[in-house]
Amino acid sequence: MPPASDPAPSGRAQALRRAVARGLLALALLAPGPVLAADDTEQRSPVLVVDFDEVFRQSDRGQEILREFETRSRELADEIARIDLEMAAEEKLLTEKRATLPAAEFRTLADAFDAKVQALRAAQDARALELNRDQSNARLEFRQTAFPILGQLMLDAGAVLVVEKRNVLVFNDAIDVSRITAQRLDAAFAERAPGDAAVDETVPERPPEPQPDSPPGVSVPDAASEPQESAEPTESRPAPVE
């Protein structure tokens, strides 16, 4: 997932944040032994790192989301391919009629065909945008669900900061909490009622997931500040008749 870009005036502030993070990481590197194992949260470290892409890949919930949108993407691509074949066949028939029809009559048919193509194109564009929006929202909700878990891991480790791994130059693997975050995310989803965690693939709008509260004293980013991803399906387009 690409990092969010800061406005130009905040470049100095971002550099300062990274410098502070490097300083805290230097302290963490001096800590002996594992910082936070899956069965031991008593060790201490001032900084933890997490790779949200890795959390997404390792968690069962993340895999469910990936499978859902892979299925929807394939369905959309198959529909686009089917429509493309239908429009190509219709265009061929229309072209064959050109030599036998008066120019005005052919132009009327050609204009109707072009209007049909444009309407189909707009409908497929709308579905592609809807798919991209739903996928971005699903990943954002996944990240938001992870924030309270990361907050509790931070408190358990005695840390003061959780840094996204992509913003760190070098670190001790012992402070990487991606795996345990994925495990606790899956446990949190498993504890919910079956109706809460079920995915209704017939409904394009994904309802917001219920979000657990963050531990007291833990600040998390606003939803609007989180980076979002979208994957546009590859589409072929029927060409208008000239």
* Discrete helix count: 6
The proportion of residues in beta strands is under 5%
Number of strands: 2
Q: What strand line-up does the widest sheet have?
A: 1-2
How would you characterize the largest beta sheet?
2 strands, parallel
Q: Give the fraction of residues assigned to helices.
A: 55-70%
What's the order of the H and E elements? HEHHHEHH
Helix/strand/pairing category: mainly alpha
Oligomeric grouping of the chains: single chain
Mean pLDDT score: 75
Poorly predicted sequence stretches spanning 5 or more consecutive residues = 1-9, 28-42, 197-211, 228-242
N- and C-termini, Cα separation = 42 Å
Report the C-alpha radius of gyration, rounded: 25 Å
- Morphology: elongated
Descriptive report:
It is a single chain. The chain is mainly α and 242 residues long. It has helices spanning 11-29, 52-58, 60-97, 103-157, 178-191, 194-197, and strands at 47-50, 161-164. The chain starts with 10 loop residues before the first helix and ends in a 45-residue tail after the last helix. The chain is elongated. 57% of the residues lie in helices and 3% in strands. Residues 1-9, 28-42, 197-211 and 228-242 have low confidence and may be disordered. A two-stranded parallel sheet has the order 1-2. Helix 2 packs across helix 5 (178-191) and helix 4 (103-157) packs across helix 5.
